[in-house]
Amino acid sequence: MTKLSRREALAAALAFGTNIASPLTRAARASTARLTFLHINDVYRIDEDNEQRGGMARYAAVVKAERERARTENRYLFCVHAGDTLSPSLISSFDQGAHMIDLFNEAGLDFFVPGNHEFDFGKDVYFERVKAAHFTILAANLTDRNGKTPANHKESVALDAGGIKLALIGATYEDTPIASNPGDLQFLPAVPVIAAKAKSAREDGAEFLAAIVHADKQKRAELMNLHAADLILSGHNHDLHVDFDGPTMLVESEQDANYVTVIDIDIARTPEARNGRLAWRPEIRIVDTAKVEPDPVVLAKVRAYQNRLEHQVETEVAELAAPLDSRTDCVRMRECAIGNLFADALRKAEGADIAIINGGGIRANRLYAAGAKVTKRDILDELPFGNKTVLANVPGKAILAALENGFSRMGVPAGRFPQLSGVSVVIDASQPQGARVKEVTVNGEALDPARVYRVATNDFMARGGDGFGMLAEVPR
Predict the structure, then answer these.
(1) What distance in Å separates the CA atoms of residue 192 and residue 140, rounded to the nearest whole number?
(2) Which of 53, 246, 354, 452 has its CA at a distance of 20 to 30 angstroms from the CA of residue 188?
(3) What's this model's pTM, rounded to 2 decimal places?
C-alpha cells in the first residue's frame, strides 16, 4: 500500500470532494457542511515562553484534539497558517528555517500562505523549503518574473463539503520586496487579487469562500469591508483579533501559537440563500495554549533541535552595566539603549561616520536587567537575520532622506524606525511625513547635504529594504 504525504492526501481529498477528517452520512452530504478552521499565524518560536504558552508541541496537541473532534462530529477540519515562520528565530540563523517545515509536517498543517519573513534568506532557500512541505501553499498574488504561478504553489483550491461548494484563496504580503529579500519574484496588490479571484470562484459556483492573507491592518480592513470573502484568516500584525459583521468574519491569532483560534461553521443550502451566499454563523473558541499539554512526539523533536544548538550559543560575551529593553514598542518607536549599542558597535567595526539600523531587525522582545550575563544566544535572538554589514559612501542629502523615511511612521511600531550612532536628530512628529527632521548633526557638526559621509548599515537596508531605497543608489 502506498503511503501518501499529508500534502498528497489533502490534494486527493480535495480532488474528489471528500472529507479528510471523516465522511459524512449520505443525507448530510446532500445539504449541509460542518466546517472547522484552525488558525495560527506568525510562528517563530518553537518552544513555549516563560509562561508555558505557545510553541510547536502545544500547537500540535491542539491539532490532534481537533482532528479527533472532527472525526467524531463529522466535521471538515482545515488547519491554516497565515504566514511568517521560516524566519526570524535563533535556530533559523543556522538552518534557514528548515526546522519549521519539519515541525509543521509533524504537527499537522493543511494550508499555508507565505509571509514576508519566508523570503529573508532569498528566493532559492524559500523554494527549497516549499518543496519539503507536506501542506498546500496558497499565494494568488505571487508570480515569478514571467507572471507565472511558482512551482508548488496554488492560487486557490475548490472543494465540495457535504454538497456545499467551498473555495480557499491565499495572498501573501504585497510589500515583501521592501520588507524582505525575494529577488525577482512579483507581489501583486492583495485586495484586488482577492476580489478578482473571489468573483471568479463565485461564478464557478463557490458558496462559501475563505481568504487566507498575510496583510497589514489597512489591507486587512479593506478586505473585511469588501465582503468578497465570507471568512478572512489573517497574519502579520500579531493581534489577537476577531471581527464579525454578518457577511464576513476576520480572525488573527496573535503569534507563536500562544493562542489558536478555532472557528466552527455549520452551513446549509436553504431556500433563503441569495446570490450564492449561504446563511451561516460562527462559533469561536480561542485556545490559550498555556492550558494545553504539549504533544510528546513534537516536544521530543523540539528538544532535539534545541540540544543541537546548546554548545554553539551558550558562550558568555558580556555582563551588562545597565538595563536593556528590546521590546517591540521600544525598538520600533523610539531611541533605545540596545539600538544605540548595536549601532555603536557597527559604526566602530566599520570605522564609519554614521551607523543606521532598522529597529525591526532587533527581535528578541525582552528586558535585560543590569548585571545580566549576555550570551551568544542572546545576541542571535536579538539579531537573527544573518545580515551582512555594509559600508557606503552616502551624500548628506540621501542621509536626510533616509532619516525622513525612518521617522515616517511615528506613532505606531514600525520596522523602519532608525536606531543611530554618530548622528543627532531633532524631529517634529506633528509635521507631515517627509518634513519631520528639523536638525541633523554628525559628530557635533551640522549635516552638509553636499558632503559624502561613510555610513555603516546592514545589507537589508542597503538593498532598499524598509523603504530605504536611497541607500541602494550609492557606492559601497
Answers:
(1) 11
(2) 246
(3) 0.80
